[in-house]
């Protein structure tokens, strides 16, 4: 099964991210991520067998991560494949450490795919027709988090559905 580790926004933040997605969609077109799918990917695991997925779910349930707060204050895009996102102007040291700590654990399970670079971002649009617009609303959000979620990504149609499998202990 296809898995990734992510931060899932609390409901109030999800709504505000959704409002930014609406504004971006009106200006840039493409496919707007549904509110329930908005997330920050910390580690993309790719295809994992059922047994290892079960082990990882157990491990995540017993994990406690340091609580943190991520400041979102920037728009960004990945030209290919037309992704418009929001994230931070500056690198975030706590998220970088969390990303590294998670990948240390994944590598202990022989999982490949650790990326050389981590750019924390929340994808709002896919396949956007325009990548930049100068009248996008100002981004000024704080994301307080204390849990990571192991998510199963299921693609049986147009857009992937994300099903949470396990959450780390709330800290
Ligand atoms: P689909 O690929 O079916 O259009 P999706 O991109 O929403 O849907 P996944 O590809 O399963 O779903 O991706 C889940 C999360 O992991 C997303 O945040 C995605 O950006 C990220 N991701 C996917 N592939 C990689 C990769 N190779 N490296 C890093 N992150 C990835
Ligand atoms: Mg994808």
TrEMBL record:
Active site positions, chain numbering: 39, 121
Transmembrane parts of this sequence: none
Motif (HXTX 1): 39-42
Reaction catalysis annotation: a 3'-end 2',3'-cyclophospho-ribonucleotide-RNA + H2O = a 3'-end 2'-phospho-ribonucleotide-RNA + H(+)
Superkingdom in the source lineage: Bacteria
Alphabetical list of InterPro entries matching this protein: Cyclic_Pdiesterase, RNA_CPDase
Presence of the UniProt keyword Transcription regulation in the record: no
Residue interval(s) of motif HXTX 2: 121-124
EC number annotated for this UniProt entry: 3.1.4.58
SUPFAM superfamilies listed in its UniProt record: LigT-like
Family designation: Belongs to the 2H phosphoesterase superfamily. ThpR family.
Function comment: Hydrolyzes RNA 2',3'-cyclic phosphodiester to an RNA 2'-phosphomonoester.
Protein name per UniProt: RNA 2',3'-cyclic phosphodiesterase
């Amino acid at each position: 099964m296809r898995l990734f580790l992510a931060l899932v926004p609390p409901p109030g933040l999800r709504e505000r991210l959704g409002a930014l997605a609406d504004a971006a969609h009106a200006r840039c077109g493409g496919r707007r991520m549904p509110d329930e799918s908005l997330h920050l990917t910390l580690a993309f695991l790719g295809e994992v067998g059922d047994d290892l997925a079960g082990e990882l779910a157990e491990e995540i349930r017993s994990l406690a991560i340091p609580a943190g707060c991520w400041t979102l204050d920037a728009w960004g895009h990945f030209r290919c494949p037309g992704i418009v996102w929001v994230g931070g102007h500056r690198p975030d040291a706590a998220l970088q450490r969390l990303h590294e700590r998670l990948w240390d654990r994944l590598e202990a399970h022989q999982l490949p795919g650790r990326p050389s670079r981590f750019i924390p971002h929340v994808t709002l649009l896919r396949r956007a027709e325009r990548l930049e617009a100068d009248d996008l609303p100002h981004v000024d959000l704080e994301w307080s988090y204390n849990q990571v979620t192991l998510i199963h990504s299921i693609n049986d149609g147009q857009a992937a559905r994300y099903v949470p499998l396990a959450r780390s202990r709330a800290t």
